[in-house]
Design goal:
Elements: H1 6-34, H2 38-65, H3 75-89, H4 94-125, H5 129-159
This protein binds fe (iii) ion (2 copies) and zinc ion.
One fe (iii) ion binds at residues 16, 20, 74, 76-77.
Length: 179
């Protein structure tokens, strides 16, 4: 059904985000398995936890609206995830594969950031401030995840560079937080 009001468009966008989060929850374990860097694995594992709570946050918003969270398929996220997993599957070199995982994960984060920014703005316009705050919280987490991936890329992309001596260690900070 096509939305005919900002309220309906808002609900449609929330459903799209909800489906996107479900897809990410399904896809992340595969990426965690494919990752070699412990820091990257940890960051993705932590983001999986955060993603689950983001889905719960959306359910809370739907509860308040008296609407069902299901019913929309996020084709965009489907494409982003499919492209990422196709890319990662073909890469044999562990460092290059980690770089590919980061490249794909950052596309996921940016796609989510676009959706949450829009939904947050609609919530505020519609006077739904509590939902607006929850959506802002998720938006902040996605930004933080993106930032952590950028920091990890600083180290991992260098490892993936040709001519880098295998086994040569870079200074990795343990237990870095990702949202
Ligand atoms: Fe998310
Ligand atoms: Fe979508
Ligand atoms: Zn995310």
């Amino acid at each position: 059904m096509k939305p005919n009001s900002l309220q309906e468009l808002y609900v449609e966008q929330l459903r799209d985000l909800y489906d996107a989060e479900q897809q990410i929850i399904k896809a992340l374990p595969e990426m965690i398995d494919a990752a070699t860097s412990e820091d990257l694995k940890e960051a993705l594992e932590e983001h999986l936890e955060v993603t689950r709570s983001q889905a719960t946050r959306l359910e809370k918003i739907f509860g308040k609206l008296g609407e069902k969270p299901k019913g929309e398929q996020c084709k965009g996220m489907h494409g982003v995830i499919e492209e990422g997993s196709d890319l990662v599957d073909d890469v044999e070199d562990a460092d290059v594969r980690d770089a590919a995982i980061i490249a794909s994960a950052q596309r996921v984060e940016h796609y989510e950031m676009a959706g949450y920014g829009t939904a947050r703005t609609y919530a505020k316009l519609l006077g739904q401030n509590e939902a607006g705050e929850l959506l802002q919280q998720t938006l902040d987490e996605e930004k933080e995840a993106d930032q952590t991936l950028t920091e990890l890329a600083d180290e991992i992309n260098v490892n993936a560079k040709p001519g880098k001596l295998k086994g040569e260690k870079t200074t990795a900070t343990k237990g870095r937080k990702v949202a």
